[in-house]
Specification:
The structure holds 2 protein chains of 2 kinds. By secondary structure, chain A is an alpha/beta fold. Helix content of chain A is 35%, strand content 22%. The mean pLDDT of chain A is 97. Chain B folds into 2 domains: 106 residues, Beta-grasp domain (Ubiquitin-like (UB roll)); 119 residues, Alpha-helical ferredoxin (Fumarate Reductase Iron-sulfur Protein, Chain B, domain 2). The longest helix of chain B has 14 residues. The radius of gyration of chain B is 21 Å and the shape is elongated. Classes of the chains: A alpha/beta, B alpha+beta. Chain B: One of its GO terms (cellular component) is plasma membrane.
């Protein structure tokens, strides 16, 4: 075992983690000793797969202001958004984009040389009048450029990285005022060694958990580790039932095709060629928010108007955009369609279907990125940002581009807060035997205690989640999913890891990841069962309407008891309102 | 070439029964160069029979081996659609991302059986099986100052850059640092101290960015004995790039910038 001491430890090297690292090291006015721990290599994180853009009311190409952006975000989130947080995000969006430009990000430009902007789902002029051009972009690789630019600046500032260090636990030291975060425990993939990082502040930026689903735009490595670790410590998770299905995944594969395609004018059509979104969202049509478009697509298929031999997808028609727009503004998705489906978007419509994409919920934080231990109190020294966190700026449904914005605005805020906290506090003692839990976990996984294959359990988990907890849900399907997930948890107790070695044991890694997936899938399903209404990304066929009387509140999930089989306790947290009254959501 | 220590997997592997074979699948042989320094004195080829659909990516086949036959098989992967750069490897002798090569493009003609060979990228130390030590590669990247260098006060708003100036370096902004190019370069194989194509591509990305003021610093670095002049324009790098970057052209442009600054 090895010990390390740092002021600030950041877990995760995607957009939120690296933005936090830069803020902590170069912007906070203090110089904390900072380390970034990542399960991957930097630049491998899934921020790099984000395509379409990052919204900010720069008003470079038409009238816009951050208040409209705030409103769109709140309405897009079906009024479950904490309005103070949305206001912070929309206001700081402008500087967030300008900061990236100054760091070197190669945004596409207007004829005047300013940052160009394009339309995106749910982003409108004057509270819903028409689509507005608000998304700043770099072709259809905006996330790639953000990830590269942030890493380049980490190189510039000499940020210290621990690559392929898999964090499996945090250290909480009990004090008179409750638990304080004092470090993190990591498994070093290269050697199998366990490292304890003692720290004054720990920032979690560990991403989402899309791999609970089969059809997903998420990377294999998005297994909700950070959320799972926090949950196992008895700390809450918030709004986990709200999971976003992105409308345009490549049919059958789930690979993302950006909403920016529709922002540039692409149209969704059913088997008969009808532009069906005109029926579901007459004003902004194909640029309605993602939950609405995904449900419309699913309905088209359910009602027999799907395309293809099995009528199980719809078509994204880009053919009228012309080869030049596709090659210059949407080159990557053009190539994805050609490579993976052998379809050329220049001449043929592309088969698409909703794909599991983004967790609106996560580790509850306030607007400074401080992690909450209940509705009112924070865990000093612990911060979270990005997809693993829930501020909540996305409410029940995130608008396109707001995730790249979220990681930049709240990644920066968490980094600043962590650095300042570290500057004003001494290192606290670690709890006794800080590595014991991880050592036991690794030893148990490597010991012989059954014959269950990780891949089998994961495949069955993903199958039941796709079938029963996807775009549409009912009491019956969710009960089935809950039953299946709990049975899989039982089987997980008997998994076998074939690789017993210490060196780059990715077999062991996958087993650990599956444990987190099972945990989070159960929370998602329990939350979905308990929320007997339809709101944003959570659509219950048996409760098709939004119920503000009973459910205008955040869900807070607490794990009770030890081990994978612990019970889940559900509590609630009020939504923060500032100036926007809930209205019926029409587009 | 003989294949020493080749083992065919039994119908039921060490991990138990295999999952049902999907309709339309054919069995292909995946021949993998294995090496675990904990147990092997030298690399050895190992073959696995894997059911494959024409639309499968080579990554799917590697996952099949790992998940259902031999859990010790080790490789990196993440996004699985060619954007994170984790799974660069030699597939049938050429550097590719395993998630961007489809089985249909590798199937043998007629009824002949198909063998797909997979080996680690060349020129970096092998840590285990297909997983190599990326550190020398990343070190070369970091050495060329791959970040925007500016002097003086920052503007209040964004820097102005014309669409044409932005276009000038568009190609080299696509790099995902997968190392396909660098590890396909014969000069890099023979002289590991050469910066290699990827580092030069990333220097190019800033040298030709109209906002940047650090071109001279980077050109001085690349004018070094281990710099651009080592390039012998074999075009391996351009062929290998999964992002379609004109790598050799970028290197030539850096060479020209060095010649004409005098």
């Amino acid at each position: 075992m090895q010990f390390h001491k740092y002021d600030v430890v950041i877990v995760g090297a995607g957009g939120a983690g690296m933005r936090a690292a830069l803020a902590a090291s170069a912007e906070a006015g203090v110089s904390p000793k900072t380390a970034v721990l990542t399960k991957l290599y930097p630049t491998r994180s899934h921020t790099g797969a984000a395509q379409g853009g990052m919204c900010a009311a720069l008003a470079n190409v038409e009238e816009d202001n951050w208040e409209w952006h705030t409103f769109d975000t709140i309405k897009g989130g079906d009024y479950l958004v904490d309005q103070d947080a949305a206001e912070v995000m929309a206001k700081e969006a402008i500087d967030a984009v300008l900061d990236l430009e100054k760091m070197g990000l190669p945004f596409n430009r207007t004829p005047e040389g300013r940052i160009d902007q394009r339309r995106f789902g749910g982003h409108t002029r004057n509270h819903g009048e028409a689509a507005v051009r608000r998304a700043c972009y770099a072709a259809d690789r905006t996330g790639h450029m953000i990830l590269q630019t942030l890493y380049q600046n980490c190189v510039k500032h000499g940020i210290e990285f621990f690559n392929e260090f898999y964090v499996l636990d945090i250290c909480l030291t009990e004090t008179d005022n409750g638990p304080v975060c004092t470090g993190a425990v990591a498994y070093e993939l290269a050697t199998g060694e366990i490292h304890v990082f003692q720290a004054k502040a720990v920032v979690f930026a560990t991403g989402g958990f899309g791999k609970v689903f089969k059809t997903t735009s998420n990377a294999h490595t998005l297994t909700g580790d950070g959320m799972g670790i926090v949950f196992r410590k008895g700390l809450p998770l918030e709004d986990m039932e709200f999971y976003q299905f992105h409308p345009t995944g490549l049919a059958g594969l789930g690979i993302l095709l950006t909403e920016g395609a529709r922002g540039e004018g692409a149209i969704l059509r059913n088997a008969s060629g009808e532009r069906f979104m005109e029926r579901y969202a007459p004003t902004i049509k194909d640029l309605a928010p993602r939950d609405i478009v995904a449900r419309s697509m699913a309905l088209e298929v359910l009602e027999g108007r799907g395309a293809g031999p099995n009528k199980d997808y719809v078509l994204l028609d880009c053919t009228h955009l012309g080869a030049e727009v596709l090659e210059t503004k949407l080159p990557d998705i053009t190539e994805f369609a050609r490579t993976y489906l052998a379809v050329d978007p220049v001449t043929e419509p592309v088969p698409v279907y909703p794909t599991a994409h983004y967790a609106m919920g996560g580790i509850p934080t306030n607007i400074h990125g401080e992690v909450l231990r209940d509705n009112d109190n924070v865990v000093p020294g612990l911060y979270a940002a990005g997809e693993c966190a829930c501020v909540s700026v996305h409410g029940a449904n995130r608008l396109g581009t707001n995730s790249l914005l979220d990681i930049n605005v709240f990644g920066r805020r968490a980094g600043l807060a962590a650095a300042r906290y570290a500057a004003n506090h001494d290192l606290l003692d670690l709890p006794e035997n800080p590595a014991a839990q991880v050592e036991a976990q690794v030893a148990h996984a490597l010991s012989e205690h059954g014959k269950e294959r990780v891949a089998d359990i994961r495949t069955e988990l993903q199958a039941t989640m796709d079938a029963n907890a996807s775009v549409y849900r009912t009491e019956e399907t969710l009960k089935q999913a809950l039953h299946d997930v709990q049975a899989l948890k039982d089987r997980y107790a008997h998994i076998t890891v074939q690789d017993k070695g210490k060196r780059f044991n990715t077999d062991l890694l996958e087993a650990m990841e599956l444990g987190f997936l099972l945990e989070l899938a159960e929370v998602l399903v329990v939350g979905a069962l308990e929320r007997k209404e339809s709101r944003g990304g959570h659509a219950r066929e048996d409760y098709p309407n939004r119920d503000d009387t009973n459910y205008m509140r955040h869900s807070m999930f607490y794990k009770q008891g030890d081990g994978l089989k612990g019970e889940i306790r559900l509590d609630y947290k009020p939504v923060t309102f500032t100036r926007y009254k809930p209205m019926e959501r029409k587009y | 070439m003989t294949t020493a220590a080749t083992t065919e997997n039994p119908a039921s592997g060490a991990r138990g029964d295999q999952p049902p074979v999907p309709e339309g699948a054919v069995t292909v042989t995946v021949k993998i160069l294995r090496f675990n320094p904990e147990t092997d004195s030298e690399p050895r080829w190992e073959s696995f029979g894997v059911p494959a659909l024409p639309t499968d990516r080579v990554l799917n086949l590697l996952h099949y081996v790992k998940w259902y036959i031999d859990g010790t098989l080790t490789f990196r992967r993440s996004c699985a659609h060619g954007i994170c750069g984790s799974d660069a490897m030699q597939i049938n002798g050429v550097n590719r991302l395993a998630c961007k090569v489809l089985v249909k493009d590798l199937l043998a003609k007629g009824d002949k059986p198909t063998t797909i060979t997979v080996a680690p990228i060349k020129g970096l130390p092998v840590n285990k099986d297909l997983l190599v030590d990326m550190e020398p590669f990343m070190e070369a990247f970091r050495a060329v100052k791959p970040f925007l260098i500016t002097y003086g006060n920052e503007p209040t708003r964004e820097r102005i850059q014309s669409a044409a100036d932005r276009e000038r370096f568009d190609d080299t902004t696509k790099c995902i640092l997968c190392a396909c190019c660098t590890t396909s370069c014969p000069v890099f194989w023979n002289e590991g101290s050469y910066f290699g194509p990827a580092a030069i591509v990333n220097a190019h990305r800033f040298i030709f960015d109209s906002r940047d003021e650090g071109a001279q610093e980077r050109l001085d670095i690349l004018n070094d004995a281990e710099g651009v002049w080592r390039c012998r324009t074999t075009f391996n790098c351009t062929d290998a790039c999964p992002r379609g970057i004109q790598v050799t052209k970028a290197i030539q442009e850096v060479k020209r910038a060095l010649l004409f600054r005098r």
